[in-house]
Amino acid sequence: MTPVSVPTTKKKSPGILPWIICVLLAGAAYAAFSSGKAKDEELTKLRQDTQELEKLRAENADLKKLSAQSDELERLRKDNKELYSLRSQVRQLDDAKVQIGKLQAEIAQLRSGNQQMADLNVENQRLRQENAQAQQARAVAAGQANMDACKNNLRIIEAAKAQWAAEKGKRPGALVSIAEITPYFPGGRPPQCPGGGSYTVNPIGINALCNIPGHNL
């Protein structure tokens, strides 16, 4: 049997092109991968920055709240301080009102006391006038009593003179002394003027005299 010869086909070498394509694809893939990774990193960083920004915004909001609360607290403290000041002023006003009330009461008492003093002065003046009138009345009464008593003493002197003249046989105009008629007085003593006056016996027939005006017969 005659062998059949099979025609052989000579294989062609693929060449460098496929390798270049593979390298380009690999480079493209790597570039895409690198680009994607960079984008992922950038996205991650952007997310982190966003989170950081949100965190900062939140902190800023908290700070604003704290600042607002601090301002409100400061305002409350200021209001509280003003309230304490107002309360202190109110207490001072209340104390001042109490003091004014006390002063008004004292003034009223002083006015009442002054009025009472004025009333007492008026009453005292009235009493003084009444006392002066009473003293004057007593003086008048005493003067009248002294005058009456003095006139009565002059009558006693005249009676003693008459008795002496009758016993001694003396006529009117005869001189006589107080010593001569003393035995004829009641009690043997010459009478004394109650007003402090002095007597002049005078001769028989002439009334005895007192040196105080109004005391004579």
Across the major sheet, the strand order is 1-2
Mean pLDDT: 85
Shape: rod-shaped
Oligomer: single chain
Please give the largest β-sheet.
Answer: 2 strands, antiparallel
Q: What portion of the residues fall into strands of 2 or more residues?
A: under 5%
Helix-strand pattern, N to C? HHEE
Helix content: over 70%
Evaluate the radius of gyration. Answer: 76 Å
Uncertain stretches = 8-12
Summing up helix and strand content along with how strands pair, one would put the structural category as mainly alpha
Total count of helical runs of at least 4 residues: 2
DSSP summary, beta strand count: 2
Task: Please characterize this protein's 3D structure.
The chain has helices at 17-168, 178-181, and strands at residues 199-200, 209-210. It has a domain at 145-210. A hairpin with an 8-residue loop joins strand 1 and strand 2 (209-210). It has a two-stranded antiparallel sheet with strand order 1-2. It is an all-alpha fold.
